[in-house]
Every structure is written in structure tokens, then in C-alpha cells.
Design brief:
The complex is a heterodimer of chains A (about 800) and B (about 70). Chain A has about 800 residues and is of the alpha+beta class. Chain A contains 29 helices and 30 strands. Chain A is about 50% helix and about 20% strand. Classes of the chains: A alpha+beta (about 800), B mainly alpha (about 70).
Amino acid sequence: MESLKTERLGCLNVSKVACDHCHLEFDEGVMIEEGAHRFCCKGCQGVFHLLQTEGLDSFYEKLGDAKLAPPTQQFESSDNFDTPAFYERFVTHNDEGFCEVSLIIEGIHCAACVWLNEKALHRLDGVIEADINFTTNKARIVWSDETIKLSRIIDTIRAIGYDAFPYDPSLQEQRANRERKDYYLRMAVAGFALMNMMSISFAQYHGYFSGIEGDIVTILNMGEWVLSTPVLLYSGWVFFRGAYYGLRNQVVNMDLLVATGAVTTYMYSIYITAMKLGEAYFDSVTMIIAFVLFGKFLEVLSRKNAADTLDVITKYVPSEVMVVENGEMRSVKVSEVRIDDVVALRAGEKAALDGIVTEGEGSMDESSLTGESVPIYKTALSSIISGSVSIDAALRYRVTRDFAHSTLSHLMALLENAMRRKPRIEELANRISERFSSTILLLALLTFVGWYFWPHDFNTALMVGVSVIIIACPCALALATPVATLVGLGLGAKRGILFKAAAQLETLSQIDTVVFDKTGSLTEGRFGVCAQWLEDERDAAVIYAMAKLSKHPVSKGVARALEAYDRHLSVDGFEEIAALGVRAHYEGCELIGGNARHLAAYGIKTPPLERSAFYVGSEGKLLAWFELEDTIKSDAPEALEYFRKAGIQIRMLTGDHEAAARRVASSLGIEQFAYEQRPEAKEALVAALQAEGKKVMMVGDGINDILALSRADIGISMGQGSDIAIEVSDVVLLHDSLASLIEAHQIAKTTYRLIRQNLGLSLIYNAITIPLAMAGYIIPLVAAASMSLSSILVVLNSMRIRYSWRR
Amino acid sequence: MDSWVIALMLGASIFLGGLALIAFLWGIKSGQFDDEKKFLNQARFDGDDDLQEAAEQERKKETLKKRSYKPE
């Protein structure tokens, strides 16, 4: 242990020096010295030399004083980037016959990083285009496959200290971006016309009061006509489309009212201009379309695409497995694997099929399927569930069920079903607008008929009829919900709460039952140290350096607990021994960490511990022990108290066994809980609650929760949860905390109140102005002014909430 | 002032404004506003070298295209 002690003394010398590559500052003692240069680690040193020899050292000039993260050293092999399976999934071929892939580059901090990556890639022979988006860190790379392999490109990115992951750009995001861009274009046209038209209208209305020549009015009308035409035909196209689909489904929607209003007003204005009857209503046409388009745009910004969910689910399943046949490995599509084939599973991989272990051993993580928090040790004849992840197990298993009948496929099939049966609460605004639209159209018709037969000429009758439609045109109504939900979504996003669709704010505000999953939702879902003993606290840095290299959840838990002792030490010869623990060397002495069995093999005696234990020893002596358990989240009691006070029923579901469930339930005071629940049982319970007329919110994070999450009125998942759970849920809590669950509920309630206020405001507004319009008191000026005024009222009311929340 | 002057001014300004609008729409469509950070920051590194590199890249693409071209 002498060597460890000298290290401790070395740490006392505290003068901070910056690394020449990453610019992070460390104690001088730990730096690698090389001539005039100093580096914090081998990674930085390597990258620095590479950039020197490649002549890319002007990077440091461009970098300035910015700090980088030191490059990661442990990469998996880049060979899998060259497999046919990878190509099929991520690589496309463009028109010119070149390959194209989209990557996410990790580690980009500044413009200099973008510059360096693009430069380095451009220097590779065969790379034709490398375009990196600085804002999103996404890169598009085009290369000629005959000259260079993708793995070589990835290796280059890694060599200069960054890492790259593939992603499929054809998904949701790109489609959403395209739609958003389309709306930008339409809004740009409407905005341009609206602004110019205001100045023309100003002249007209000024002239209305102070006198204006008839032909000037006509010229101004013509100008407005030119400006409003593209707005009606291009920007307003969305409403015609919406009205058409509405009519096909026999629904009178808001789009129909807007479309009718805009077209009749436009036609009538042309008539006024041609007949020289005074001021036209072109400004109202533009304003209606611009305002309601803006409302629609806000909706588009916050919409979720259901179809994409299934894409992600199919991706979750590994597409190929390694089948062992006559001693040879061969990659086979999962759907083509037959029963009794033997499949090899490497450490870190996900099992695609169900089976029985024939060879090898190690721990498997089944927590996201069964809810069991402790990793399960598998040896020959243990069963493997598809979807479980190997932590350190390298084994071979004999397939017992083909892919179509595997646990995972079964779950996916059930999921599609559950998603279809999810109850949809119709939005308040939709319910109102449908009735509102038909009422207004009817009133306008009645007004026209009334005025025409109450002896007036056709012209006056038409004008009054049209003015009813214009005044009622639902600018405020169309803005009421989107503006309110945007405020709600914004409040949520700032606090790490992502609502996938605006409508979910309304649904969430009305729930009366909340169902929690145990593992990962009420508890941390990972091991935390609850008791520990160290012979000498100064050994912590070395134990941390060893524990952080391990993939096992127990070692990871220890590493997290010791994070504060990080001194950037590194151990040599690190080795992970399946089901036992880890072994490493530090400055000549051997360190052993793991369970009692592992340490006993080295002749080290260990005290018995109640829960999962991690012992560390060296040279026949015990240095430290840690006791770990799946700890309850610190904010769980507070969250449960909040829901109890709000009169919301609380239930807990778990796939874990009874003892673990009872421990958590009793310490949190949950009376109704169920344990050893299969995914289908969880969904059934949610469905049963819904059948009682309850509105159910489900909080979960694992694959075993996805059925219940998608079935519940509102599914909430934790940001650390599995990809599928995040995908099928409606709300994601990025901070992983239950305190943000409280906030999510409060935000939803506030937003719903705001929506009702806004709708009320615009309806009251119409109740006053429509009778006036029917009585024939509305002139173009009043119509235009009232339309803006009602919209401003709604927006101001929404802003009020925003400010009251900020305080 | 004759009313045709107003008509002319109105027409000219709408026309010019329209040109600006079209340029803006083209900008959105061709993705020039997609990455605001790079747009602003990379301007600092602009210079002969980058121009040279862009030309080099273009040449590389041409040669690769010729090489991979196989007559039927």
C-alpha cells in the first residue's frame, strides 16, 4: 500500500495547470509533461499530436480560451458500421451513386470544433461532403464507398477526440421540420402583406374621416387587392384543405368558417372595388388568415406523430443476431432464426429472442421487462427473455420460440392494440368551435334574408350579412387555445417537462387517479449506497477509478457515491469477472472489488451484509465495503402528499416481488398496490380503472410499463427510462424527479383554466359584436379594429399567467 | 398631386417589397436560416483556405464520379 500513500502526498501539491489540448485545469502533479506541453491525459496528448502532424493546429487558435471535454478513450470497435445491417438501416444512396449517412457528433462545443471536424473529414480521400450543423450537432456525410469505408470515417472522428452515432433522419423530426418550414413560408407571405396593408388602410381610414377622393379610394383598394390575393390563395390554402377534409367527414369545423369568411369577404371586396362603393374589406381577409394561421402554427409546433412511435418500436428490436452453426458464427435476420438455433450474445447486447442458455454465464438486466431491480445471474439452463440486456454475460442460448412468438414481439403487438384503444378526450375548443361555426354561418344567412325581405336593396343586405361573418370570424377563438397551451408548454419546457401534444395539458388537468410503477419511478431504479465503510478515506479515489470502468450496476452505484473523490487516476489491467466483480492494478498493487465470493477467492475475509454488497480488498486485506439498495426518490413523499391533498387516488404497480413492493409501499404510505404484475396485467388494471369512469395517469419508465402507459389517459415517463417508454408516453419528465410531476400537474391545471378564460373572453366578445353587426352598425373600420382587439385581449390574458408563474 | 402618382408609387413599392419577400422565401427554402449558430460563428474563420478547400472538395467529387462511372 506504500505506493497508494505516495500518491496521496502528491495530491497535496496544488498548483493548477491547464491542459494544452482541452484547456481544463488540473493539479500540476497529475499532468503528463512533454517538453513545454502539458496534458491532462493520454487522450488529449494523442489528439494534440495528431493535429500537429496533420497541420490542423490552427484549431487551437480558433478555439481561443474555450474548454473541451477530454476525449473518451474506450470506444467499441467501429466494425459494426460496415455491416450490411447497419447500411440497410442508416445509409442511403444519393442520385450520383454516393453513400450518405446522418450522424450525431458528440463533443462539439464551439465553432472551432465544427471547423476541425469538417476539415479532418474533408482531408479523407473519398469523403465528398461533410456538413455539420452546429446548433443540433448533426452531421451529414457523403462519401464514395469504393474509396473509403464508413468505419474509417468514424475512426477519424474518434481520433480527433469526438464520437459519432448514427441516426435515421427520415423520422418524425425531419417531417416535422418540413411542415414547420412550410408554415414559415406561408406566415412570411401573410406577415408581409399584413404589414403593408396596414399602411394603406391607415390612409383609407384617415380619409374616411377627413375626406378623400373617390378614385384615390379605388387605387388604394386595388393595392390591397394585389396584396391580399397571395395571402388568400397561398397562406390561406391550409384552411381550404382543412375545410375540405372537414366536409368530407361531415364536420363543420373552424377551418370552414375561416375559409367561407375569407372568400366571401374577398369576393365582396372585389365587388366594392369594381363598383366604386367605398372602402373594401381586403385588410380583414388578410388579418383573419394571418391570425388564425399563427394559431395553427402554434399547434403544429407542439404536435406528436403517432405513426412514428411504431417506427421507434421496431427499431428497438435488434435486426440481426449471430447464429452459431457448426462452430461458425453467421449473422442472420431475427425473423429467419428457427427454434433450436443457437445464438451468441455478447456483453452489452440486447437479447432478441427467448431461449435457454447452453454455454457461458453472466448477469442479465431484466429490470425493464420484469421490474426486478437486482441483475439476474444466468448460467447453463437458465432462461433468457427477449428484450433483456446483458450486463457482462457472454453466452450462447438455444432459441425456444421464433421471433414472431417471442416475448418482445408479443409485447409490441399488444402495444399497437393498447395505443388504438387509448381514450381521447375531445378538446374544449373543438367542441365549442364546431357549434360556433355552424351558428355563425346560420346567423349570417338569416341576417341577409332578414334585411333583404325587410325592404332593403340587395347591396345593403349582402353587406350586413357579410359583416356578421367578418366580425365573428374566430381570430380570438382560434388563438384562445394555442396561445394558452403555448404558455403551458413553455412553462413546462423550462422546468424539464415535455408535453408531446398540446391537448395533453387539458387531459392532465382532469385526471383523478394516478398509477405509479415502482422501479425507476418511485425509486431511483438503480443502486445507491445506503451504508459504507472505508479503512482509509484516501483510498476512495483509487476505488472510484476502478469502479467507474465497470458496467455492472452495483459497481456503477459505488462509482456514483464516490464521484466527489475523483482525482483523474487511472488503473491498469482492468478486468471484469462475470458474476464476481472486478480486478485491476494500481501502481503495482492488485485491487479486487466485488462480492464476498470473489474476495474469498483471494483470501480476504468479509463481514456479512444484509443487502447487495460490494467489497474492495488488496493484498489480503479488506479496504472498504459498500451496502447498496434501490433507494426511494427523495421527493417521492412530497409528490404523494400533493396528490393526496388534491384528492387524487394513488396506486402502485410493480413487476418486482412482494417483499420489495411492500417495503416501498409501506415507507411511502401507499395502501393500494399490486406486485409481480406482468405488462398485460398492468394494462388490464388501468383499463379496469377507466371502465369505472376514472381518468388515469400512469407514471412509468420500463418496457414492462409501455402497455399501461399507452393505455392510460396520460402516460408519463422519466427521462432516464427506456426509449420505448419515452416514445409511447405523452409527457416526459427530463429531470427524472417527482417534484416535476407536481409541477406538470399544476401547469396543466393553470393552462386549462387559461383556456376556459380565453374561450369565455372571445365568446363574450362575440355576444356583444354579433348583434351589432346583425343590426347593421358595423363598417370595415370597426370590423378590423374589433378583430385585432379581441385577439390582443386573449394574448394579453395568456401573458398574464406567464408572468404570475415567473414570480 | 394627380392620383396616377399615388398609383405609381403604390405599384412600385409593392413590386419592390415583393422582390424582397421572394428573396426571403428563397432563403428559408434553401435552408440558409437553419443553423443560426454556424452562420454567425463560422464567419470568423472565413478566408482563402476555406475557399481553396471548397474548390478542392468539388474537384474530388468530380474525379470520384468519373471513376465510379461504368459504361453499360
